[in-house]
């Protein structure tokens, strides 16, 4: 499987404006897959409770943090999301020398959600994910299909002060701290010689496999990847294009800048075809802990034809019903063995309303242009409102309990009028 999807970005001061962390990700998935956006409040659990992930059940922890997730509707985990402590995580598929065709275990997307539920800093999320990886492993089909599409994972994780890049190969891993500037990841290993945390057996395993001679400087990407680091910088790759777009706005990167990068089709970052961008996320996190973070999600495919809607963590935030897909419980074809014998309808309310509008935009140039202008006007209005929150804070939290849902309703009303 040749690397073919997903990009995740983070910008920290001094690359970003206004002492803020800017996090962004496009989730590039099969074009017929529905991505939902869900909110789960913080919760306490009894000893011995379990949590049922996509394929396996694992031990639950005593307390989970509130999370907002953008996730393929058929599985438990998430492509990307944030928690109440303003930790953000996105994952990427990576392929290397180690086979990804293992037994069903935790998906990388399960690890994203578990990291968000269990860690209040980026570094703690690295620890959570790597401990779970050691205990349970990673594996299983990453598509709602019998084809057995499998991969290992890299993760970009940020909080209010720093970011971490975590890359895995089976149960082995390396992590790099990013304390300033910008970083982006695509579907290839990117950690080279700067390794700030690692699996204790990672180097010896590579040496035993003949991938490293045990004497030369250890370069994780060179040792564990099919590709050399020169290939990572190859002209025309999405990684290189993403890096160029970040550099173009270096020192002035904002939430709007990140949305523009995620919408860029010439670079391939906004992907089209059998694999396409099915959901997008941008988070704006002030480094000042007294100020809230704002997390924007599309919940619909193609950010160029979608609207980023804001979510803020407040104590009494409500469920996001219009972006919640139908649930099939134990009758879901994903839960029955053999799995994936059929595909139920997973379209949520916003997806259903957005689908014909996206088709109109594609088909009718003038009408489509008018619809897109209306969508972007809505988005700009919300972002202007959120700018006040990002600089002044939230005085009346209950007013924002339905922020994302109210924006979805406005968006759907705009579609109905179209």
TrEMBL record:
TM spans, by residue? Answer: none
Tell me where the signal peptide lies.
none
A GO molecular-function annotation: dipeptidase activity
> Where are the annotated segments for Disordered?
323-346
Which BP terms in the Gene Ontology apply to this protein? proteolysis
Tell me its family. Belongs to the peptidase C69 family. Secernin subfamily.
**What PANTHER family does this protein map onto?**
SECERNIN (PTHR12994), SECERNIN-3 (PTHR12994:SF18)
Query: Could you tell me what this protein is called?
Result: Secernin 3
- GN (gene name): scrn3
